Amino acid sequence: MIDVTKIDQIETMILDIPTIRGHVLSMATMRSQAAVLVRIKFSDGSEGIGEGTTIGGLAYGPESPESIQSAIDTYIAPALADWDADDVNGALQLLDKLVRGNRIAKTAVEIALWDGLGKRLGVPVSQLFGGAVTTKMPVAWTLASGNSETDIAEALEMIETRRHNIFKLKIGKRAVRDDVAHVARIKEAVGDAASIRVDVNTAWSLQDARWGLKGLQEVGCELVEQPVPARYLDAMAELTSSYEIAVMADEALNGPEDALAVATHRAADVFAVKIAQSGGLKRASEVISVGQAAGLGLYAGTMLETGLSTAAALQLFSTVETLHWGTELFGPLLLTDEILAEPIVYRDFCVEVPQGNGIGVTLDPDKIEFYRRGGSRILKS
Ligand code: MUC
Ligand code: MG
Asked: Which of 110, 141, 179, 307 has the smallest CB count inside 10 Å?
């Protein structure tokens, strides 16, 4: 009889880690990030780790850190008890039947399943998706201090130290003309040394967006992310066809069905593919396939996760033939502390794919205990 490895235990925790500065988005200002971590213990003694993290409590999307944790503890973990650990696809199908939505919660568990499987097989997760085609990818940084001068100083330092030369500016909080002036100042300061893009996080009406896109492309901004609310696909389509500046879908992309709707409407030039928003690595790979089939540009997005989910995303995106707009997988750099035993490497304007089995990273247990909600808050030296 073949001995089947089973899922024994699924454990969750929330870590609260401060950010290096206020991160000012149109819908929320982040001063710390609440990362939901999952650890799965398997019957053969192996383990897998995962993460499902959102931005700004409930300000960004329908899942909060607390709802992610409770969906896993109350519904997902009991459903997967004793499940064949190697049957990741079967587990995903079961979860899609039993749990509607809750994509970020599913992502956290799915990452831990892939991590466990990769470790048991002695291969990186990228191998489970057909193999990596690259070891590093260009990585953007987000300028979102809320102040133009601070953003300029930050950008110039990043260029000087060869950490980033792609910048995403968070706008949408101020009047459109003030936002365009802010972007113009930053573009003028960096010149041709950097690519400037913006993310409006759905804050504009179609009328605002018409003025905004016209102004942004005049000042040399290359791309605008999610200018209007996610459900306004007709407005996105109008903006995509009316201006040269690239329009990127983010909040509009919650899994492969949304990807098909955006592609069919020609409602974007580029997909910001986020593993958490897609519902995990498998669903993100399906979003990528839809984008590729529709001839759209691809960009690896982030929910400002820790190094854990960032590593999982790197495993998947390293298997993608062309990421036309690079990545923004810089999450760990926005946090004041590192929770991985070995940090992800950022150098020469790129992020490197962690080498190793599973997602390729391990946690620092003292940091987990320190930042865990209800944890000791004492760091062993
Ligand atoms: C978003 O909407 O894209 C990604 C980078 C960043 O600074 O915020 C996120 C969220
Ligand atoms: Mg975005």
From this structure: 141
